[in-house]
Design brief:
CATH class: Alpha Beta
Shape: globular
Domain FAD dependent oxidoreductase: 31-381
CATH topology: FAD/NAD(P)-binding domain
Keywords: Oxidoreductase
CATH architecture: 3-Layer(bba) Sandwich
Largest sheet: 9 strands, mixed
Pfam family, one: DAO
Enzyme class: oxidoreductase
Structural class: alpha/beta
GO molecular function, one term: oxidoreductase activity
CATH superfamily: FAD/NAD(P)-binding domain
Strand content: 15-25%
Radius of gyration: 21 Å
Helix content: 25-40%
Number of domains: 1
């Protein structure tokens, strides 16, 4: 069988060394079979192992191959749609539960890093940067909203204050979240995989799930083996394909692009981001950036609907980088890559159960780093019979994209064009 390596990226080039993991070539039995060794699958596996389950993880390529190992590396709280939108959709009781969970993912990441000594360049502090007075007004409302749910590590910044933390004159102000932060995302996934194995879990790489045989004891088939389990957790997200047809119509893979500069050196790096916080702007089609552990600038943005790989990623992203930091005009770009995330029409995650024993979580819609870690805990709770928090997510309404799979990409792209115009003209 073909061996699928990591796509070229700064993260793959700077990943911590790990032993290769075998492909599944036998028929085995386990309590829980997890499909996908990204953050959702690894977080689920860890919580389950800590609670005494026997766990087997199947990964089609390598640990963290998908969005978990290619994202911007930013720990951003809440969901892609904030708690006020959820409240209007589902009412105060369900929103209260989801609001209490909105800041838990970041805490889980820090707890994992500390407990399992994961080397992933964890840094505290994330900035939401406002480009217009209207965006600043949204941040003021967001601060009040988050504080209503007990989240207090927030500071509003005026134009002068934000210049203290980021050397970019595009911003009229912003909000600093000290419980936000950033990590080397692939090294976080690799560290979590090592933690799974340290607790007795098994991870098979190059072992795609090609078919699920449903029933009282479902069986997951791979090209050369099969796993019989009491429960299955489907955690393939944007890389699931059509393995579970019920999930495909209500979500759409989208690509985001990231570039990484050559090392800038301590001095230049410190002038750009003196406190080493990460930054994202408040546009609908937002840009985000941060420094790596070796003082490169990692800069991402743009969305490609339908997850095609654009021909020249640097040509798309470099102009955005230079608009933010014209002082980097002569800096070389060492890496450029794309990675897929899964978008839902509501931009809220899809969580649920098929039959009695197949659980899933997907569709983080660009807010995956923190949400996936929470999802793992919530799925593990559900398998242990504590379903209140699982049900709060499972009861969120979801709809198929208009026009089905054939038309979902042009519809979404049209929406993005509209919001891009709104960003441009400051609406």
């Amino acid at each position: 069988m073909a061996n699928t390596p990591y796509p070229e990226s700064y993260y793959a080039a700077s990943a911590n060394a790990v032993p290769p993991r075998p492909a599944l070539q036998d028929a085995i039995e386990t309590d829980v079979c997890v499909i996908g060794a990204g953050y959702t699958g690894l977080s689920s596996a860890l919580f389950l192992l800590e609670n005494g389950f026997k766990v087997t993880v199947l990964e089609a390529a390598k640990v963290g191959f998908g969005a978990s190992g290619r994202n911007g590396g930013q720990i951003v709280n809440s969901y892609s749609r904030d708690i006020d939108v959820i409240e209007r959709t589902v009412g105060p009781k369900q929103a209260q539960l989801l609001g209490q969970m909105a800041f838990e993912g970041g805490r889980i990441i820090r707890e994992r890093v500390a407990r399992y000594n994961i080397q992933c360049d964890l840094k505290d502090g994330g900035v939401f940067a406002a480009m217009t007075a209207k965006q600043m007004g949204h941040l003021e409302s967001q601060k009040r909203l988050w504080e209503r749910f007990g989240h207090t590590q927030l500071e509003l910044m005026d134009q002068r204050r934000i210049r203290d933390v980021v050397a970019c004159d595009q911003y009229v102000g912003g909000m600093l979240d000290m419980s936000g932060g950033h990590i080397h995302p692939l090294n976080l996934a690799l560290g979590e995989a090592a933690a799974v194995e340290s607790l007795g879990g098994t991870i098979y790489e190059q072992s795609p799930a090609v078919r699920i045989e449903r029933g009282a004891n479902p069986v997951v088939h791979t090209p050369q083996g099969k796993v019989r389990a009491k429960f299955i957790i489907v955690a393939g997200n944007a890389y699931l394909g059509n393995l579970v047809p019920e999930l495909a119509a209500k979500s759409m893979p989208c690509g985001t692009q990231v570039i990484t500069t050559e090392p800038l050196g301590e001095e230049l790096a410190k002038t750009l981001l003196p406190q080493d916080y990460c930054v994202e702007d408040c546009n609908y089609l937002l840009d985000y950036y941060r420094l790596s552990g070796d003082k490169r600038l990692i800069f991402g943005g743009g969305v490609v609907y339908g997850a095609r790989d654009p021909a020249n990623i640097e040509a798309i992203i470099r102009p955005k980088l230079l608009k933010a930091f014209p002082q980097l005009k002569d800096v070389k770009i060492d890496y450029a890559w794309t990675g897929n995330f899964l978008l839902t029409l509501s931009r809220l995650p899809q969580v649920g159960r098929l039959g009695d024993n197949i659980y899933y979580s997907q569709g983080c819609s660009g807010h995956g780093v923190t949400y996936t870690h929470l999802a793992g805990k919530v799925l593990a709770e559900a398998l242990r019979g504590q379903a209140e928090r699982f049900d709060a997510f499972a009861d969120l309404p979801h709809y198929p994209f208009p026009g089905g799979q054939m038309l979902r990409t042009p519809f979404a792209a049209l929406g993005a064009w509209y919001y891009g115009l709104r960003d441009k003209f400051g609406y």
